[in-house]
Write a structure and sequence with these properties.
Shape: elongated
Structural class: alpha/beta
CATH superfamily of the largest domain: NAD(P)-binding Rossmann-like Domain
Strand order of the largest sheet: 3-2-1-4-5-6-12
Number of domains: 2
Radius of gyration: 19 Å
Length: 271
């Protein structure tokens, strides 16, 4: 039985992951972790997740429970995840990280940490979105530079980073397929006298409102036609099930950085 520690246990994703773990064979949750001062600290994770008592307490100190874990599942913030990854590196504990919004310097530190432990890091854990990554790369390669590309993402009002990590990954994959550097062609929204659309740019627009779990649309447009590829998530269980699948997969893997394409076996299947 694989023993998991959920970091960010009282958050929306943490609670959903706790529920999915309860329903999944071969894995159990042995602890939850939250920030110091969070009202859930000291409470039963099952009660917080709406499962009833399960005998698993929420602590505010990962170092107290990390030795019990076979794998850590982290959906928190970039700074928090980075600290937790440093601990995982020290204790050689596998991790699954769904946090988004890492800056370049933080990513450089991640690459150093994962030399000591295996980590699945993905902006989106759903099967559908990871297929979408493949599809947009394939479509961009077939349609070529004659099509304008726009990416639209829509999330709940509480999401802190923008654009979403998934939208950025989509843009990166498209730019790669077209032989462009994403950092040079990405346009984040438009305002005022911006002039005509430049050749090769990839537009990204972030919407926020209500309780939208996550919608992503990629638009390929040219004279006379438009192709749109859309993925809509209606439940966080989609991501939670992917995270638990990744947790089961990553235990026993060699140190290094992995993503959901590795977990789902998509990397070897091509576009």
């Amino acid at each position: 039985m694989i023993k998991a520690v959920i970091i960010g246990a009282a958050g929306r994703m943490g609670r959903t992951i706790a529920k999915v773990i309860q329903e999944t064979e071969g894995i159990e949750c042995v602890a939850g972790v939250e920030n110091t001062g969070h009202p859930s600290v000291g409470n039963d994770l099952g009660e917080i997740a709406g499962l009833g008592p399960i005998g698993v307490k929420i602590t505010d100190d990962l170092s107290l429970v990390i030795k019990e874990a076979d794998v850590l599942i982290d959906f928190t913030t970039p700074s928090s995840s980075l600290y937790n990854m440093e601990l995982a590196s020290y204790f050689n504990k596998p991790m699954v990280v769904g946090t988004t919004g890492f800056e370049e310097k933080q990513r450089e530190k991640i690459l150093e940490f994962v030399k000591n432990f295996p980590c699945v890091l993905s902006p989106n854990m759903s099967l559908g979105v990871n297929l979408l990554f493949k599809l947009v790369e394939m479509v961009a390669g077939i349609l070529g530079p004659g099509y304008d590309v726009e990416i639209l993402e829509f999330h709940h009002r509480g999401k802190k980073d923008a654009p979403s990590g998934t939208a950025l990954r989509l843009g990166y994959r498209i730019a790669q397929a077209l032989g462009r550097k994403f950092e040079e062609v990405a346009i984040y929204g438009r305002k005022g006298e911006v002039g005509p659309r430049s050749h090769g740019e990839i537009g990204i627009l972030a919407l926020r409102g209500g309780d939208v779990v996550g919608d992503h649309t990629v638009i390929f447009a040219t004279e006379g036609e438009r192709l749109e590829l859309t993925h809509r998530a209606s439940s966080r269980e989609t991501f939670a099930r992917g995270a638990v699948k990744a947790a089961l997969w990553v235990v026993g893997k060699p140190p290094g950085l992995y993503d959901m394409e590795d977990v789902l076996g998509l990397r070897d299947r091509g576009a």
